[in-house]
Specification:
There is one protein chain. The chain has 87 residues and is mainly beta. The protein has helices at 46-50, 71-77; strands at 6-12, 16-21, 25-30, 53-54, 60-62, 68-70, 79-83. The protein has one domain (6-86): NE0471-like N-terminal domain (NE0471 N-terminal domain-like). It is built from two helices and seven strands.
């Protein structure tokens, strides 16, 4: 199965990320549950977390060469907010 790609991200408080996928679905993904796992322990430096970027082709969110989260992870485990196509 092919998963939607990420079109837009915005960093929120409390280690959450607002994500809009290319199919119009909006989700909020919490990174909090990963903070005790490597390489995500680096997010204890909040400035690193705040520097997240959407991967160029929408296949995930990246911070540096060692830290990223795939679109699949966010799609499967993010909290559904709304689908823009249903408005």
């Amino acid at each position: 199965m092919k998963y939607p790609r990420i079109n837009y991200i915005e960093i929120l408080e409390n280690y959450k990320i607002f994500v809009i996928f290319n199919n119009g679905q909006i989700k909020i993904y919490s990174v909090s549950n990963l903070l005790n796992e490597k390489p995500f322990t680096a997010f204890r430096d909040k400035n690193l977390f705040l520097n997240a970027k959407k991967e160029q082709n929408g296949y995930g969110i990246i911070w540096n060469d060692e830290i990223d989260i795939s679109e699949y992870e966010i799609w499967k485990n993010g909290k559904n907010i709304i689908n823009l196509k249903n408005l």
